[in-house]
Amino acid sequence: RHSLEGNVMTRDEVLQALKKERAQLQAALEGLDDRIMSTAPVNGDWTIKDLIGHMTTWHQVALKFIADYHHHGSPQSLGLEDDAALDAYNQREVERRRAWTLSQAGSELNTSYRLAAHAPTRPGQGSGIVPTQARQPRRAAGRRCCRLGRWGGNV
Prior knowledge:
The protein is mainly alpha-helical. Helix content is about 50%, strand content about 5%.
């Protein structure tokens, strides 16, 4: 993936960023009431639980792209040609998980994190392969971050 400065990140840098993201998320969510995380909107009508599902979606997409890279030589398109299609995709993924409990959303995020963080590095070592260099999606990651101001954290 590209850093916000446009440089290609190494596998180790991507994994460090993933670990840092996870630690920041855990710190931001520490001590928050489960009911609030599941019901109080923090970004439009999305709750913290919805944002957790959104993060998971993009972990899963990254894992798909990495597997595609090794099987096909490049990631296969999701068919999201513009911001409207991307926004619709994000909303569909949130809606798919909307009835889930916070525990279910957290479990799925933990699973996707483990797959990304512990994926083998070369083709033939299993699914979810992390190449030496991975590419970031079209839109800069920082553009879609949500500030959880009243709870004192960032996601």
